[in-house]
From TrEMBL:
Pfam families: 1-cysPrx_C, AhpC-TSA
Thioredoxin domain: residues covered: 34-168
Catalysed reaction equations from the record: a hydroperoxide + [thioredoxin]-dithiol = an alcohol + [thioredoxin]-disulfide + H2O
InterPro entries: AhpC/TSA, Peroxiredoxin, Peroxiredoxin_AhpC-typ, Peroxiredoxin_C, Thioredoxin-like_sf, Thioredoxin_domain
EC number: 1.11.1.24
Cellular component, GO annotation: cytosol; mitochondrion
Keyword Oxidoreductase attributed: yes
Name of this protein: thioredoxin-dependent peroxiredoxin
Length: 202
């Protein structure tokens, strides 16, 4: 069976580069629903980088973490607050070897117009997507999926915390308890050693 072509617009939340994109995601039908611990479906398309269009693909992010988040539309209400929030924290993601890419159903022309609208107007300079967010690891494996209803925006702090937690587990082999923050206690994943954590925090 030939892969289906699904049109989605993509915007990178980079304040310094002002990346906003449209992509045509080439996804095999069985891969339409990404799953945690499965490879992310490959995609490619046209991005707005600065004021220019550039081709990008999932392969461009090999060896890095990727936060891929979907939002309904450019010129709306909650969407700009999310894009601006991720954009303002882009340097923190870069320090974690992580790129942020946002996706909507708008065209790359709409993204370019939106990027050139003043921030004080709420911007960076039919059907709509729900607020989905995917964290993809450097090997292209989906590590986390969140989907919100339209009226509630996402937390950049929580996204950064999750990226840091996945990186900690990969590096140290210990697991992160609820609400884990860097430099807080972690758990050795075996029954006997895990008691050290519970004795420490209780």
């Amino acid at each position: 069976m030939l892969p289906r072509v699904i049109s989605r617009s993509v915007a990178s939340a980079s304040r310094s580069t002002g990346v906003l994109t449209q992509r045509f995601l080439h996804v095999a039908p069985r891969l339409l629903a990404p799953e945690v611990l499965k490879p992310a479906p490959p995609f490619k398309g046209t991005a707005v980088v600065g004021n220019e269009f550039k081709e990008i693909s999932l392969a461009d992010f090999n060896g890095k973490y990727l936060v891929l988040f979907f939002y309904p539309l450019d010129f709306t209400f909650v969407c700009p607050t999310e894009i601006i929030a991720f954009s303002d924290r882009a340097d923190e993601f870069k320090k974690l070897n992580t790129e942020v890419v946002a996706v909507s159903v708008d065209s790359h022309f709409s993204h370019l117009a939106w990027a050139n609208t003043p921030r004080k107007s709420g911007w960076l300079g039919g059907r709509v997507a729900l607020r989905g967010l995917f964290i993809i690891d450097p090997k292209g494996v989906v590590r986390q999926i969140t989907i919100n209803d339209l009226p509630v925006g996402r937390s950049v702090d929580e996204t950064l915390r999750l990226v840091k937690a996945f990186q900690f587990v990969e590096k140290h082999g210990e697991v992160c308890p609820a609400g884990w923050q860097p430099d807080s206690p972690t758990i050795k994943p075996d029954p006997k050693s895990s008691q050290e954590y519970f004795n420490k925090v209780n």
